[in-house]
Structure formats: structure tokens, C-alpha cells
Specification:
Layout lengths: L3 E4 L2 H28 L3 H20 L6 E4 L3 E6 L2 E6 L6 E5 L5 E6 L8 E5 L6 H15 L4 H22 L1
Antiparallel strand pairs: 1-2, 2-3, 3-4, 5-6, 6-7
Protein name: PH domain-containing protein
Keywords: Membrane, Transmembrane, Transmembrane helix
Length: 170
Amino acid sequence: MNAKIYEYDTKVYRTKITITAIFCAFILVYSLFSIFTTNVPALWVVAAVVAGYFVWETFVSIANPSKVEVSDQGITFSAYHKSHHYDWNEVKRFKCKPLASGTKMFVRINEAGIFRGRYWVNCYYFNDGNELFQYLFHKEVEIDPEGLKARAVRGSEETKSIKRGRARRK
């Protein structure tokens, strides 16, 4: 497979991720100031933690990538001129948790931490998003063939073949 690049819709990314993160940065600064100057510092501590977390996830750990590149050699998540690359032969753990919408998934690679390894991939806004969703889902099954998701896929395939066999006999 040649490298395939999936990119987030630029306008949507700017609105949903970048502008929100910039707004949170302002809230973080205001909250830090308000902690020391108001009568309700606990409220501002909570606001600072929430805003700081979003700013960190967006600009430091690039947990919301604007670009995902996949190839036979590895996968790369990129945003804001930063990239995290993982060679498939070095990936020991690859977990994808699809969310209820069926278009967004939380991807964890190896020992995910606060600096890298955790990514929110909203496939709905990526070009060829369904293809990306299927690729990530099946990559987990490929990397962890004894995992719960792989067993569920095998069980589903076995059930389908049994049903097809019954239908042929009728």
C-alpha cells in the first residue's frame, strides 16, 4: 500500500479545534489571574484545569490531529507543524475505541501518555473518513489478533458463514 493521507476539513478544524483552543487559552490566563484576585478561587481553579487540559491536548500533545498518514511502514498523526510517527514494527499496543456516533474514535498507541499516543480521530471530517475508520478498526485486529475486538470480528464472521450455510440448505 502506498502512503495514504487523510486530512481534516480545514474550515471545520479551524472552527472546532483551533479557535476553541485559543479561546481556552484566554480562559486559562484569565482563570489564573482570577484565582488570586477573587473571592471564589475554587471556581477559577476548575476553569483553569479544564481550559489548560484542552490547550495542552490541542497544541502540545496534538491529540486532535489535522492529518493522518498511513502506509505499510507506519502511521503519522500531525497538527500545527508537529508530527508523531509510529513504525508498525514498533507498535505493541494499538487500541481504537469507536464512539456512539460511529464516526469518531479514540486511538491509543503503545503506552499512551500526556505527550503522545492518544488521538481523537473524528473520521466524519476527514477526507475518505469511512475508509480511515475501517483502516484503524482493522489495524487493531491485525496488531492484536487475540484481543476482544479480534475475537468479536471472528465470531461475527463465523455466525455469518453458519447463517449462509443454513440458507443454502433451505
